[in-house]
Amino acid sequence: MNEAVLAWDGQEKAVNHLVQERGQRAVFCGLTSIVWLHRKIQDAFFLVVGSRTCAHLVQSAAGVMIFAEPRFATAVLSDRDLAGMADCNEELDRVVGQVVARRSDIKTIFLVSSCPSEVIKLDLGNAAERLRRTYAGKINFVDYSGSGIETTFSQGEDSCLQSLVKQLPDAGNEDPSLLVLGTLSDIVEDQFRRLFEGLGIGPVSFFPGRAAGDLPPVGPGTRLLAAQPYVNETVRSLQARGATLLRAPFPYGAEGSQGWFRAAADAWQVPVTRFREVIGAPLERARLAVSQHQSQLTGKRITFLPDSQLELPLARFLNRECGMELVEIGTPLFEQQLMQVEKSLLPETVRLTEGQDLDPQLDRVRRDRPDLTVCGMGIANPLEAEGLRTKWSIELMFTPIQGFEQAGDLAGLFTRPLTREAQLKV
């Protein structure tokens, strides 16, 4: 792909009309994001205030960590709580006391509201303030919403990070700094740091960091580079504090990663020769790794049902780098300032939908019969029973897929369902 296109030259082209759908939805709630947030922020504890259903959801989603002592729990609301017959704050204080007594390594406790706690108007903001005073100097308390009311599961991270923005220190001057926004696995973060260092870009901070106290300063000199496509409200909060968003594709695949780094390089006026010298080798490794999957993916038809907000950048990668034909791309939320670059790189013929009306979408899948449908777990099994191959979208949230070195792994996630189908037919 042309580097100027990937760096985003500001010239928008007329592409694909976006159709909004409103109706029945089938998505996980924001509590699911605790699984990857608690893996990233290693000295934080996530305390959900919710029902037993909330507890079962988080435990099921985090089942892969069953042999490790988790840093999340649920303060279960009973029938008396929901009926307003008990003081929920007393019970919350008791549970927090148990967590503090048991886990001396915890530096921050996130109080996470759920559908039940929000329905009964439990004010976790006041609770967090009260607990900050109680444990002053020892533990920080932050509240945010993990409710599934009118949101999708990836927005839980956005809500969490937005709640931390007000605690970020002010940058003391207007010197440029780069803030990479969105949870990344440690190995990807390390790779990105090395490339930024090679390009001479810095200082660089990652938000969230590996510790809850890693709170980067923000101000007029801060340049934002979104590593995840679902951090809309956090971006707005950082912009309100003076930060500037760099427009770029997301770092999925060889071309997307190239364009992502190019946006930062242009902001720091890195010479083209140096950019090519630093990026050249990892770019070629990524292209080679992706090419090993192209024979299985080229010409295959794919549909994305709205679930995670990763749909547009993943579709761009699969179409432009793997040769897949895009039938329909559904996304729970289309955020103009984060997605306009990705949208401009998609073919004009693809159907784009924002939101969800489940039955008509499933009717279109059955009519189109794509080779692969990316969707939530609850939809996947019924489609598989009808002979349609599927890919769980939530798996893409738990797997390192960003950057040059992960490009081949990302392509491989989409070849596996097709390979499995071929093996079953033998």
Keywords:
426 residues, alpha/beta, Rossmann fold, six-stranded parallel sheet, four-stranded parallel sheet, disordered N terminus
Considering DSSP H and I runs of 4 or more, what fraction of the residues is helical?
A: 40-55%
Structural class determined from secondary elements? alpha/beta
Query: What's the CATH class label of the domain at 3-25 and 273-425?
Result: Alpha Beta
How far is the N terminus from the C terminus?
38 Å
Give me the CATH fold name of the domain at 3-25 and 273-425: Rossmann fold
Largest sheet: 6 strands, parallel
Strand content: 15-25%
Indicate the radius of gyration in whole angstroms. Answer: 22 Å
Task: Give me the oligomer status.
Answer: single chain
Number of extended strands = 14
**What is the mean pLDDT?**
88
Total helix count?
18
General form: globular
- By CATH, the architecture of the domain at 3-25 and 273-425 is named 3-Layer(aba) Sandwich
What is the CATH superfamily label of the domain at 3-25 and 273-425? Answer: Nitrogenase molybdenum iron protein domain
